[in-house]
């Protein structure tokens, strides 16, 4: 499978407010480079971003570089997925989840 580039946005302090406001369905993967489970989730996020292109926007937030944002959204463990619907935090998922489980959770949260 040829991996599409640019489907998962980099999230940081400069763009998070705009992303939350302008994307009706947004999932932000809070991660760090040293986190093994985060690295396991990365290809799952890439696949979901391709599968739901045009329906759900996906982004990645490096919590080491954006500790203020992680604190604002009370991210206490990584990986954490912040799920926004209509500009509001609708749900969060903590830990590495298999694609099928995560897909079910996302469709439930964003329905």
Please indicate the count of domains: 1
How many helix segments?
A: 4
Task: Kindly report how far apart the N and C termini lie.
Answer: 28 Å
Helix content: 25-40%
- CATH top level? Alpha Beta
CATH architecture: 3-Layer(aba) Sandwich
- Kindly identify the CATH topology: Glutaredoxin
N-to-C order of helices and strands: EHEHEHEEH
Helix-strand makeup class? alpha/beta
Radius of gyration: 13 Å
The fourth-level CATH homologous superfamily is: Glutaredoxin
**Tally of strands:** 5
* Residues in β-strands, percent: 25-35%
Q: What are the segments in which pLDDT stays under 50 over at least 5 consecutive residues?
A: none
Shape: globular
- Strand arrangement, largest sheet? 1-3-2-4-5
Question: What is the overall pLDDT average?
Answer: 92
Task: Tag the structure with descriptive keywords.
111 residues; alpha/beta; Glutaredoxin; 4 helices
Task: Describe it.
It is a single chain. With 111 residues, this protein is of the alpha/beta class. The protein has one domain: Glutaredoxin, CATH 3.40.30. Helices cover 37% and strands 27% of the residues. The chain has helices at residues 16-22, 36-51, 67-72, 99-110, and strands at 8-11, 25-31, 57-62, 80-85, 88-94. A hairpin with a 2-residue loop joins strand 4 (80-85) and strand 5. It is globular and about 30 Å long. The termini are far apart. The mean pLDDT is 92.
């Amino acid at each position: 499978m040829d991996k599409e580039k640019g489907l998962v946005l980099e999230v940081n302090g400069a763009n998070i407010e705009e992303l939350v406001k302008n994307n009706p369905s947004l999932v932000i993967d809070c991660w760090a480079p040293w986190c093994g489970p985060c690295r396991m989730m990365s290809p799952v996020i890439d696949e979901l971003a391709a599968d739901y292109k045009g329906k759900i926007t996906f982004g990645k937030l490096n919590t080491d570089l954006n500790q203020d944002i992680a604190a604002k959204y009370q991210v206490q463990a990584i990986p954490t997925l912040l799920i926004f619907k209509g500009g509001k935090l609708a749900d969060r998922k903590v830990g590495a989840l298999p694609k099928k489980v995560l897909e079910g959770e996302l469709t439930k949260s964003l329905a």
